[in-house]
Specification:
With 147 residues, the protein is an alpha+beta fold. The chain has five helices and four strands. A hairpin with a 6-residue loop joins β2 and β3.
């Protein structure tokens, strides 16, 4: 990563301008060109530095649902199980954890009843029991990871 990559990651965690040409506006702020900024974002995605680049929607306010899930994947099958879990478009993100429940992921659906279907599919495909931990209370914190 170069200095522009770090600037992109650090600044865009705080928000993205809602203007007609947001990359042009940011490029001016970053001292580069719109095309260069877009190329850097694309390279960060292609290289896996960024797993996604886009808006975060509140699924529940749009009539959908989301839930935090965890499972215990045998270490020798972890990558295979990860691929199966991540093959579901409803899986928003997936994290490895140093715990007996070593895989944690979020499911977001446009239909609340779809959550149970996705969980059942994942359990069937992986042979792992999925722990479903729906949100009881929502908290908003200013989370920022400086790079």
């Amino acid at each position: 990563m170069d200095a522009l990559d770090r600037q992109i990651i650090n600044e865009l965690q705080r928000g993205f301008p809602l203007v007609e040409r947001p990359f042009e506006m940011l490029a001016e702020q970053f001292g580069t060109t719109e095309a260069t900024l877009i190329e850097h974002v694309q390279k960060l995605l292609d290289d896996g530095v960024l797993s996604r680049f886009g808006p975060m929607y509140n699924a529940e306010k749009l009539g959908g649902a989301l839930t935090l899930c965890a499972l215990s994947a045998p270490e020798d099958q972890f990558d295979n199980i990860t691929d199966k879990v991540n093959s579901h478009p409803e899986v928003a993100h997936n994290y490895a954890r140093d715990h007996s429940l070593n895989m944690w992921f979020v499911i977001a659906t446009d239909d609340p009843e779809r959550v149970a279907e996705v969980l059942a599919d994942i359990e069937h495909e992986t042979g792992c029991e999925v722990l479903n931990m729906p949100k009881l209370t929502e908290y908003f914190i200013g989370l920022h990871f400086a790079v």
